[in-house]
Specification:
Distance between the termini: 35 Å
Helix content: 25-40%
Number of domains: 1
Number of strands: 5
Largest sheet: 5 strands, parallel
Number of helices: 4
Strand order of the largest sheet: 3-2-1-4-5
CATH superfamily: NAD(P)-binding Rossmann-like Domain
Radius of gyration: 14 Å
Strand content: 15-25%
CATH topology: Rossmann fold
CATH architecture: 3-Layer(aba) Sandwich
Shape: globular
Length: 127
């Protein structure tokens, strides 16, 4: 399990991903595989369910190819939480916020600057 512990000197432990679509669930999966705690946030529970199902399907294929054990896949899934409440970004202690939702600069500014608390490190992809 050592290969699944967070690396780097940034001190990031938890990541919030806004959006559970293809890009969002991909970011969440990679982060969780790297050992980070992840909260994936979207506006509808159906979107979150589909995103989590995509992650489960992807991890299942990786296990089937024997690139990961089932135990590691289960641990990865356990590190991913979901929420429809944007205020759950506060659970990440402002470590890292990744925005993977379709938006414009106005909506993006609302997400970042009117959130529950200031975000120290932000990774943004505008689609």
């Amino acid at each position: 399990m050592d290969n699944l512990t967070p690396r780097g000197s940034m001190g990031i432990e938890r990541i919030a991903v806004l959006g559970a679509g293809q890009m969002g669930n991909g970011i969440a999966q990679v982060a969780a595989c790297a050992g980070y705690e992840v909260v994936m946030i979207d506006i509808k529970q159906d979107y979150l369910d589909n995103g989590l199902a995509a992650i489960e399907n992807s991890l299942s294929r990786v296990v089937k190819k024997e690139r990961m054990t089932q135990q590691d896949a289960d641990a990865t899934l356990a590190r991913i939480k979901t929420s429809t409440d944007r205020n759950d970004c506060s659970d990440v202690d402002d470590d890292l916020l990744s925005n993977s939702v379709f938006c414009d600069v106005f909506i993006l500014s609302i997400i970042i600057f009117m959130g529950p608390s200031p975000v120290n490190k932000v990774t943004i992809k505008i689609l």
